[in-house]
Amino acid sequence: MSTTKLLNDNELVQQFINGDQNSLEILIHRHKSRVFSYILLIVKNQELAEDIFQETFIKVIRSLKRGKYIENGKFVSWVLRISHNLIIDHFRKEKLKGTISNDSSDVDIFNSQKFSEETIEDQMINSQILSEVKELIYELPEDQQQVIYMRHYMDMSFKEISEQTDVSINTALGRMRYALINLRKLIEKKNLVLTKF
To answer: Does the pTM exceed 0.90?
Structure first.
């Protein structure tokens, strides 16, 4: 057991593929807090984060058993990409159902101190703008969606983004640049006005 714990991620992956279930438990335990924190930061709901976390590792197990893991970088980055895709899938399904609400939140955003100076109309306009921006982000290529979420919704530095996605800082910056260019094009194409004034 103790010697197994000393193995690196890729060695543990190999052992799991060869039938050692214990190796996967060590991998999950090793990366649990990082993966769960990442999911929770985006979905901002404990129960939903737990569901997506479980789904992530079910998908990890299936992918490993089917030989879909290619050892070309960090195991944890691969797991984070899977969780990110599951988060995007969840929000797409919610968008189709039209059921995103703040009912599950402990704080009613419309009674927040932060908005006390704003009128209900201001709040509705802000909410509409945020909603339209989110919809536009869904239309971007996946790598551009990812960099926007990490930078603007998770407040990560480009250095952290590059480490988490296994790309250079220049590539992360490039993705952000193209994401913003593409967002501007989409705003023009759809004739959207994303401002209160």
So the answer is: no
